[in-house]
Amino acid sequence: MAKNKVFSKVSSAGALLTLFAMVLAGCGGNSGNSSSSSSSSAASPTAIASAPASAESDWAARKASNEKAGKVRYMTGFYFGASPPDLEVVVADELGYFKDLGIDVEIQGGLDSEGMKFLAADKIQIASAGAPSLVIQSVASGAGIKGIATFGAKGNNALMVMADSGITKPQDLVGKTIGYHGALPPNYVAMFKNEGIDPASVKGVSVGYDPSVLSSGKVAALTVYKSNEPHIMESKGFKVNLIDPGDYGAKTSFGVIVANDEFAKEHPDTVTDFLRAVAKAHEWALANSEQALDMLKKRSQSGYDLASETNRWTVESKIVKDAQDPKHGVGWQTDTQWQNEIDMLKNAGVLTKTLAVTDVMDNQYLNSIYDGTNLIWPNK
């Protein structure tokens, strides 16, 4: 897919620091930061609570403040694939939610690995990352960025095995070969260790992105995304099963919105309202999936596999819903989620620098957009 050029970061204007306190006074209190593990029970869709009339003048001033922040450049994590939060960002742009809040957003298709680099270089302001681990490793390398929302409180990766292989649990993989991309991810190492298995007792080989290496018998298991390779295999008539590392204590999450530290510090209201628009778009997309996917298709600069992207959104949006904390709105993230990721990276030897959760994650912006599970949205 062709890529748009990356633009330079715009100069920042002063933020309206005290405004949101007045808005919240009219809208009701916010939930505090939680360090508890996210619930795996299904959550009902986030309700939209309009701000009272008394806050209208505050919203007008807030919108003016957001307009002064200038253009906000956002890079997607996998071009225009139908994954949270990228689908929601496109929907928010198409439906005018950003415009309603005075935010001028420019969306660029890309990859999360390059997005973290552009964030660190101040060339974009906000981006998405497939998992917290990418954010953590970027911060360890000196990037001034933080995760400000995480859509999937349960991981989207798994080990895929053939249904007739007889492999049903990690112990069945001892002495067998696992195919992976580049290196075996830390959560798989953690899964084996949690089950008392020496990771060295499981052979590993770097393979390409064609899942037929599994059906051909070249590997006994393959690291995959739940929303991608299983669909490919099943569309070809193969029956497969998944082994989820999260079921063995190696919990991860996915769909992270990441912000440049300096931009967030200079324009906290703009970052907060960016999340507000994306959260509103999420609920619309759940109810209007076909239209949302069509919006993504129009943005794509190459062939768009609508069937695959429909499957991606179906699988990933269900994970988001099923793992959402019922006490919080979509995007909620916890200290525990991020600490788990830090610990797995350290135990796998990938992370050597000591990092605190506060170095890599910040919930202050997400805290401000909800009254309980109700999204706070201005009156028209």
Helix-strand blueprint:
Layout: H1 19-27, E1 48-50, H2 56-68, E2 71-75, H3 86-94, H4 97-100, E3 104-108, H5 112-120, E4 126-129, H6 132-140, E5 145-152, E6 157-162, E7 177-180, H7 186-194, E8 203-206, H8 212-215, E9 221-225, H9 229-235, E10 240-243, E11 254-260, H10 261-266, H11 268-287, H12 289-299, H13 306-323, H14 335-347, H15 357-360, H16 364-367, E12 370-371, E13 374-377
Structural commentary:
With 380 residues, the protein is α/β, with parallel strands linked by helices. The chain folds into 2 domains: 39-155 and 253-377, D-Maltodextrin-Binding Protein, domain 2; 157-248, D-Maltodextrin-Binding Protein, domain 2, CATH 3.40.190.10. The protein is 39% helix and 16% strand. The protein is built from 16 helices and 13 strands. It has helices at residues 19-27, 56-68, 86-94, 97-100, 112-120, 132-140, 186-194, 212-215, 229-235, 261-266, 268-287, 289-299, 306-323, 335-347, 357-360, 364-367, and strands at residues 48-50, 71-75, 104-108, 126-129, 145-152, 157-162, 177-180, 203-206, 221-225, 240-243, 254-260, 370-371, 374-377. The strands form 3 sheets. It has a 5-stranded mixed sheet, with helices on both faces. α7 (186-194) links the parallel β7 and β8. The radius of gyration is 21 Å and the shape is globular. The two termini are 39 Å apart.
